[in-house]
C-alpha cells in the first residue's frame, strides 16, 4: 500500500456550491465598484439651468386663463433627449439628421421612432422630413421590394449600427391616414394591399404583422410600414429557417390572429392571407 500524503500536500477542491458562491461574490463586488464609479461620474456632470416656459393664454383647471410661467429642466427640444446617431453615408454622399420629436403614440419598448429632418447636398430639395426607427429586428429586403413598387416608404438607410446596438432605419414620411378596424377599403386600395402581399410571397417572404395600424391609406392605393416581423417563409426550404413570431407577441381575441399564431411559432403565408381577408373584408 502506498503511504498517505501529508495533509499539506493534498490539493483541496471546492464543491460546485462553493464555486458558485465565489463567482456570485465576484459579480457583486464588480457591481459595487461600478456603482461607485457611476456615482463619482454623475456628481461631476453640470446641472442644466431651468428653462422657463410661459403658459400665458392657457386655461387653468378652473376654466380661467392662466398667466404663469412653468419651470422645466428638460425641454422637449433638448438635444440630450435624442439619439447620438445623426449621420450616415450612401456611397460618396453624406446625410445628416436633425431630430424633431419622438413619433406620436409610439410606446413599444422594443423600438423607438423619431421624426427628423434629413439634409444632404446630393438630394433635391436639400432637406426632407424622414422617419428614423431604432429596432432589434427588421427586413430590409422586404421593405425595399415593396418600396420599389410604391407600396412602402422610400428607404434611405437600413443597417445594424454597433454603437447603438440596434438596427437603424431611415425612410420617407408617408402622407395618409392609418387604417382602423371597421374601415372599408376601396376596390383600388384592396387590390393594392393584395398586390403587396403577393409580391412578398412571390419572393418567399412573409409580412407577419399585417394589422390595420401597419396599413396607410393613400387615395387609390395603400402603403405598408413596420417590417420588423417580415422575413423568409419556412415553406421555402422546409428546413425550419423561417422567421418566427416574437416570444412576447400579444395574443387575444382583439387581435384576430389566424390559427397557429403564437409565441415563437413560424410565420406562414396562410397567416398573412387570413389577415388580408380580415382587412379587405372589413
Automatic annotation (TrEMBL):
<dbReference type="InterPro" id="IPR011009">
    <property type="entry name" value="Kinase-like_dom_sf"/>
</dbReference>
<feature type="compositionally biased region" description="Low complexity">
    <location>
        <begin position="54"/>
        <end position="64"/>
    </location>
</feature>
<protein>
    <recommendedName>
        <fullName>Protein kinase domain-containing protein</fullName>
    </recommendedName>
</protein>
<feature type="compositionally biased region" description="Polar residues">
    <location>
        <begin position="65"/>
        <end position="75"/>
    </location>
</feature>
<feature type="region of interest" description="Disordered">
    <location>
        <begin position="53"/>
        <end position="79"/>
    </location>
</feature>
Amino acid at each position: 500500500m502506498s503511504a498517505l500524503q501529508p495533509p499539506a500536500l493534498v490539493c483541496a477542491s471546492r464543491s460546485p456550491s462553493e464555486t458558485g458562491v465565489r463567482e456570485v461574490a465576484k459579480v457583486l463586488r464588480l457591481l459595487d465598484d461600478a456603482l461607485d464609479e457611476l456615482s463619482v461620474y454623475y456628481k461631476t456632470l453640470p446641472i442644466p439651468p431651468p428653462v422657463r416656459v410661459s403658459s400665458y393664454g392657457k386655461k387653468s383647471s378652473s376654466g380661467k386663463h392662466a398667466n404663469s410661467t412653468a419651470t422645466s429642466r428638460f425641454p422637449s427640444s433638448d438635444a440630450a433627449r435624442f439619439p447620438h446617431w445623426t449621420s450616415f453615408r450612401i456611397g460618396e454622399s453624406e446625410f445628416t439628421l436633425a431630430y424633431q420629436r419622438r413619433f406620436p403614440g409610439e410606446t413599444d419598448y422594443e423600438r423607438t421612432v423619431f421624426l427628423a429632418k434629413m439634409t444632404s447636398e446630393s438630394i433635391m430639395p436639400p432637406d426632407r422630413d424622414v422617419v428614423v426607427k431604432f429596432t432589434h429586428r427588421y427586413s430590409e429586403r422586404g421593405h425595399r421590394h415593396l418600396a420599389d413598387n410604391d407600396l412602402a416608404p422610400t428607404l434611405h438607410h437600413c443597417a445594424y449600427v454597433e454603437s447603438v446596438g440596434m438596427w437603424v432605419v431611415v425612410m420617407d414620411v408617408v402622407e395618409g391616414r392609418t387604417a382602423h378596424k371597421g374601415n372599408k377599403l376601396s376596390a383600388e386600395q384592396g387590390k393594392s394591399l393584395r398586390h403587396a402581399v403577393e409580391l412578398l410571397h412571390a419572393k418567399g417572404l412573409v409580412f407577419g404583422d399585417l394589422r390595420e395600424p401597419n396599413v396607410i391609406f393613400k387615395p387609390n392605393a395603400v402603403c405598408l410600414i413596420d417590417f420588423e416581423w417580415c422575413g423568409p417563409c419556412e415553406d421555402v426550404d422546409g428546413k425550419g429557417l423561417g422567421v418566427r413570431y416574437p416570444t412576447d407577441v400579444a395574443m387575444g381575441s382583439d387581435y384576430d390572429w389566424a390559427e397557429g399564431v403564437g409565441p415563437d411559432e413560424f410565420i406562414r403565408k396562410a397567416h398573412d392571407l387570413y389577415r388580408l381577408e380580415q382587412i379587405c373584408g372589413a
